[in-house]
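Form 7-S
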Amino acid sequence: MWAARQFLPVSGKPELAPLGRGLINDTYRVTTAVSSWVLQRINRQVFSDPVAVMANLRRVTDHARRVRKGCPESGWRLPEVIPTRAGQDIYRDDQGEYWRAITYIEATHSLSAITQPEQAEQVGRALGWFHGLVGELAAESLHDTLPGFHVTPGYLAGFDTVVAKGGHGLDAPGLADAMHFVESHRSRAAVLEEARAKGHLKPRVIHGDPKLDNVLFDSASGQAVSLIDLDTVKPGLLHYDLGDCFRSCCNRVSETAEPGEAIFDVDTFRAVWRGYLREAAPILTQDDLDYLYDAIRLLPFELGLRFLADHLAGNTYFKIQAPGQNLVRALGQFRLSASVEAHERTIRRVIADLS
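Output:
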């Protein structure tokens, strides 16, 4: 409550309610008699430099405002930074915790699963719109607030370190299967980083976490209108965003479902990719297209690796609601990656036919 009062929109007694399904930050919707907005406590265990996180957010949202000025209203929009009463973009409390406030985009909703092809295409358009929007920003103009984020060889090295220490939850059902999957796929972990080193792929401004939860749909029209949760905006490869978006949207089941039920839905992939191309086709190179399948296969493996490492480390990163949940999440992502491999020929054909 005290943190909420440090920001400009507060008048009267604010009411706070948890918002969203995020696993990292604590997020609340703040409602007063005259306004509604979003308050977040930035997780310092994940984001070691919250000031840099806010500098990136300010740069991207200011750029979006400049680009849109004088243009016809398209319906697309990003959250705006709300300053503190002292005119700062971030508030640090007496316990050293960092808080930020952003506008709440009214009359919108997010989806927990895609049930219609139109929804999938709208998700693709949202990510394509965002990539087009930030395409004019130089990657080096943003802080790298998450060094090593989505660099799969780094996660693999961290996993090996945890394993070498012994780890927690070694008697959990399914652990042997998860460990075997990692060993059988470790040779493919560096494919995107090797492409970057060879100059085939170049760093750009990326969202960093374009999962389905972070796409907002207009509640009246059903059209996608925003991509939120911009803490992870940073320099990176577009393939991190694309692979993560397809990972999130094309899984037929949630991350908490039985791992064996995870299946990569090619029809949903086709619709998302079609929507993305409607907005972002001009920014893609042939190399981007050539490495797209690799990203689609890699990102579920990477997240599974992170879940598994956190399980073995004692669940210090991802929030859990029950013992063994991170192992279940890992197995689901590995099953999804295996499903991508089973559909490789079809996925490559969709990429070639639509691009």
